[in-house]
């Protein structure tokens, strides 16, 4: 069912650019961003890609180019809060039961259709078939497709065979490769669309964690039973009865399983990675069936655990990061960062305004995986991959690494603020340094 393994696009989701910095000259040396004042920059999102809770009070660090007669920040926030409170119930009660019902209906319909086709083929066959005795392990001993009597051995087999798939999924989840970023984005988008935000003091009407876990298990149950009966039951049995080859049945069902998870709406790179991932999963489920002596139940258990892990782990991780992003966005930046940001604004021009800075700051915290208020090199690589997600070209990781080091070399090795306790060293970037890197990378790709 689920075309990918979880996690890391944290904030709101749509199919648009998340960050763009345009009309900037390429800078090969970073000296607190050496840019001509004539050049203008913009970080924008035509349709916000990342979650944005306008109820948050975000520090205004943009003091350059003030608007004429600006509304006091506190009054502006109060006015926004009054507007949002009118619709908070609609916006935060976000479990989509309609979408969940559609998934259930889709799985049931698919299973009924496949079973009807199998029965129809049996009706016209020379020898009538008993669906419960279908098997393709090439042995006389096998379990019935509908022998689902639980035992400790079968449960342990299902759990053990789920572990490698989850491990492979975590590798994709932690990758900063562009294709992996696209897959992670789609998975995150799906999970947030299903379950929305987690209930908290900031989101009192949002989704309850217990309810989300139960619904995740129900979705995984429907999916595991339906797809295993079809792809490890009916389809490989049909291939084996025609070819009398267990390896061909094994590969055939895995290929069809992978094809069933591709999407016409996905990008080529995303489909390529999803196809490879699901091909591996299909082969692994098939191996599970053969190793357990033609037993479908361990396959079903593994599939349920795998899908349940994706849904629950993704939803939990996203919400943890979103909570951290909301909290961190309220904090006052260290004075040295404020000075650096003002300098960047003065050089960038009026398009790098308050909203842009605040959006970029949320984006920055969204990729702070260790919640230290700074980004590691790996965090930065992942953030850049997402920032250029919809661009035709993505910056070379080596270029990102070089800029990472140059930014550090052009500023003090250590920055310490007594109030915040945040330290930016040569191994991590603070927000102003990250903003410098984004601007230089965008100026390069815009040429």
Note the beta-strand portion. under 5%
Q: Strand order within the widest sheet?
A: 1-4
Number of helices: 13
Helix content: 55-70%
Q: What is the tally of beta strands? A: 4
Nearest-angstrom radius of gyration?
Answer: 26 Å
Briefly note the structural class of the backbone. Answer: mainly alpha
SSE sequence, one letter per element = HHHHHHHHHHEHHEEEH
Pick out the low-confidence regions: 2-58, 62-71, 80-92, 413-421
What is the mean pLDDT?
Answer: 78
Can you walk through the features of this model?
- The protein has 447 residues and is mostly helical.
- It has a domain at 98-320.
- The chain is built from 13 helices and four strands.
- The strands form two sheets. The chain has a two-stranded antiparallel ribbon with strand order 1-4. A two-stranded antiparallel ribbon has the order 2-3.
- A hairpin with a 6-residue loop joins strand 2 (415-416) and strand 3 (423-424).
- The protein is elongated, with a radius of gyration of 26 Å.
- Residues 213-308 form the CAAX prenyl protease 2/Lysostaphin resistance protein A-like domain.
- Keywords: Hydrolase, Protease, Signal.
- It comes from Nitzschia inconspicua.
């Amino acid at each position: 069912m689920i075309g990918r393994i979880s996690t890391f696009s944290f904030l709101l989701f749509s199919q648009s650019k998340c960050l763009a910095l345009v009309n900037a000259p390429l800078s090969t040396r970073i000296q607190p961003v050496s840019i001509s004042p004539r050049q203008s920059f913009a970080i924008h999102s035509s349709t916000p890609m990342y979650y944005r809770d306008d109820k948050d009070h975000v520090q205004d660090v943009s003091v350059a180019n003030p608007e004429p007669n600006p509304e006091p920040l506190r009054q502006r926030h109060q006015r926004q809060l009054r507007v949002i409170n009118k619709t908070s119930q609609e916006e935060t009660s976000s479990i989509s039961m309609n979408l969940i019902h559609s998934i259930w209906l889709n799985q049931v319909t698919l299973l009924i259709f496949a079973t009807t086709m199998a029965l129809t083929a049996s009706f016209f066959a020379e020898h009538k078939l008993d669906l419960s005795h279908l098997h393709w392990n090439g042995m006389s001993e096998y379990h019935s497709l509908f022998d689902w009597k639980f035992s400790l051995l079968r449960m342990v087999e299902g759990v053990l065979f789920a572990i490698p798939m989850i491990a492979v999924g975590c590798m994709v989840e932690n990758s900063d490769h562009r294709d992996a970023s696209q897959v992670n984005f789609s998975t995150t988008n799906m999970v947030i669309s299903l379950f929305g935000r987690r209930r908290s003091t900031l989101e009192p009407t949002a989704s309850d964690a217990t309810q989300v876990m139960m619904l995740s298990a129900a979705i995984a149950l429907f999916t595991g039973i339906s797809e295993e009966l079809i792809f490890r039951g009916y389809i490989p049995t049909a291939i084996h009865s025609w070819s009398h080859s267990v390896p061909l049945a094994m590969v055939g069902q895995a290929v069809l399983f992978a094809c069933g998870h591709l999407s016409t709406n996905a990008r080529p790179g995303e489909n390529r990675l999803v196809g490879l991932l699901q091909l591996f999963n299909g082969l692994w489920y098939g191996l599970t069936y053969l190793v357990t002596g033609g037993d479908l139940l361990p396959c079903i258990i593994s599939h349920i655990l795998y899908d349940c892990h994706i849904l629950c782990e993704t939803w939990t991780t996203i919400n943890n990061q979103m909570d951290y992003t909301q909290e961190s966005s309220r904090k006052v930046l260290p004075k040295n960062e404020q000075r650096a940001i003002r300098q960047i604004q003065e050089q960038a021009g009026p398009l790098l305004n308050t909203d842009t800075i605040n959006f970029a700051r949320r984006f920055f915290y969204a990729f702070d995986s260790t919640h230290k208020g700074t980004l590691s090199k790996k965090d930065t690589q992942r953030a850049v991959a997402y920032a250029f997600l919809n661009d035709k070209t993505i910056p070379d990781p080596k270029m990102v690494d070089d800029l990472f080091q140059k930014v550090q070399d052009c500023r003090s090795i250590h920055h310490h603020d007594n109030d915040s306790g945040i330290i930016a060293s040569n191994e991590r970037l603070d927000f102003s340094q990250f903003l410098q890197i984004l601007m230089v990378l965008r100026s390069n790709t815009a040429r």
